[in-house]
Amino acid sequence: MSLDYQQRLTIIGQQPLALVDFGRGIEREALRVDSAGKLSQYSHPAAFGSALCHQSITTDFSESLLEFITPVANSPTQLLAYLNDIHHYAAKNLENNETLWPISMPCFVEKEDNITLGQYGTSNVGLMKTAYRQGLKNRYGSMMQVIAGVHYNFSLPEKFWPTWSEIHKLDLPEKDIKSVGYLGLIRNYLRYGWVIPFLFGASPALCQSFLQDKKTDLKFKKIGKGTIYLPYATSLRLSDLGYTNSGQSSLNISYNSLHNYLASVRQALEKKSPAFKVLGIKKDNEYVQLNDNILQIENELYASIRPKRVSQGNETPSQGLKNRGIEYIEIRSLDVNPFSKVGITEEQVDFLDLFLTWCAIIPSEQMSDEQSSHFASNFNKIVTQGRAPDLTLEIDGCEQNVAQWGAWITAQLKELAIVFDKNENSDHYRQAIDHITPRFSEPELTSSARVLQIIKEKNTDNGVLALSLSQTYKAELIAQEYQIWSDQHFEQEKLNSSQKQQKIESEDALDFDQYLQEYFIQAEK
After folding, report:
1. pLDDT per residue over 112-128, tens digit each?
2. Rounded distance between C-alpha atoms, residue 76 and residue 63, angstroms
């Protein structure tokens, strides 16, 4: 017989080391914008070293889309200290009076050709990164690729897994236990992960320039000079307009076992796309895309959560997972928090720790393709109309409104927070729950509602608010002190990253065509 929730909590509470040494990491994206709030047209700042090799500061799709990466931290406080230090250094070294755009949806962009692809040098690996981005541009357009988000990387403690086995009554080989456990977490995230855009989504509005000539059935309202919004939206970034690919909905990625997951990803990597075939592979001897498959490489698989493993050598992500199993998970459904100068708060991190652990300890039934599609539909309802008073969600045969689902989840998270805080002799987890979860019954407290309230009260544009915040945050970041690192640390990393790139470029022995051919042969093994 399955254990009830109280029994599971009791077992965890009796194993205090099961909740010690979580692994946490953040990847925060931010556009560089000029003093007028327009997309920067300048190259990656010299002070940031090599975008290919820098450990903390790189770029995502475009030259202007910065990505800040923390090391793994074992406490929320340490994690935010790393993130603040990176932001402090970046703010001091931005050139041309630029600031960091503090929201997910992009600034005013007159035309897509103004978006310069990320440049990573002349090495084969660097050229492949740019060619992959060229493929994304040709497949989906550049506007979608300059949306910013916050990715949260999370791993459960080593000593958690024997306790996990006990509460799930599973006797598994040690090499399999984490992968089975993380896949269970992922399935529950697909069921209940809508709470993340509901609570933390902060992109209910966008600059009208984002649409360009793109048609949409969404019934936007207008405000200011050029802002459009949906009254009950939480995260347009996660809608079909944003960083998603509706064409991938038919891929049916399975999370029921590691074998099934890898097989479904492999099928997606090998499946040809008639629409992408029309683009061709090369034009005028330049790559239009890496290939004409539905996915050029695994990174093109858009998902709100991913199983991850640090790769070794030339492994692809799937090869790393196949060889050594799942090591951690990556949450990809967090908007940039416009009310934080670093895009996320420690309180959010506390909530994520609780929510993800809860996803790991509650039962997690296997999921059919039909169920996966249904949970994706729930998610899509939340991002476009999540604060609508009459919105209901059906989960595993039970239909309730958001407030009712929120009350049920909150009650369980509060009990888990007591266990967390007792283990740490603190109360910050309970404080996080007490502050965040009232949003379920009072949606006007959500980040998305707060953004809309500000622009409506001032009858102003989304971009005006964002530019003002970016300037305020830059001054605050410059004024603060380092918490862990120093200028010397970043100067050394700048030097190290440039030297690493030079070494990679000097050691290339193949031309780029041969390199790609061998890469894809190796990736199929």
Report:
1. 999 999 999 999 999 99
2. 30
